[in-house]
Automatic annotation (TrEMBL):
Source organism phylogeny: Eukaryota, Metazoa, Cnidaria, Anthozoa, Octocorallia
Protein name: Uncharacterized protein
């Protein structure tokens, strides 16, 4: 098992999808925020560091709101360089590997308790 906070107790954890979570813990009497958003593929790390906060994860989970972000990229099409603006979904409460029930409990897809 991986120790994300090096033995420091976790204050708050918000998990949205596999590999998309935010951890809030206290280090040296200072509140520290650690985010991992590997699940949002195609979103630049600079965007996740500057724009996404722990409160965004909580809002996404409890209010069931997807958040979108825009970023500028340089791409090459047919040996011609273009500057483009991309709009993508960065945080989403809808897990593609689990079935979410009304009371925030989940079941695996094709579970026998899930009615068709």
């Amino acid at each position: 098992m991986k120790d994300e906070t090096l033995g420091i107790p976790i204050q708050e954890f918000v998990g949205l999808r596999p590999k998309m979570y935010s951890i809030l813990y206290t280090e040296n009497s200072k509140l520290v925020e650690k985010k991992t958003a590997k699940g949002s593929k195609g979103i630049e790390k600079s965007v996740t560091k500057k724009k996404i906060r722990h409160d965004n994860y909580k809002t996404c989970l409890f209010d069931k709101k997807q958040t979108k972000t825009s970023m500028n990229k340089i791409r090459s099409y047919g040996h011609e360089i273009h500057s483009i603006k991309l709009n993508k979904i960065d945080l989403s409460p809808y897990d593609d590997k689990r079935f979410i029930l009304e009371d925030d409990h989940t079941l695996a897809h094709r579970h026998y308790k899930i009615s068709k």
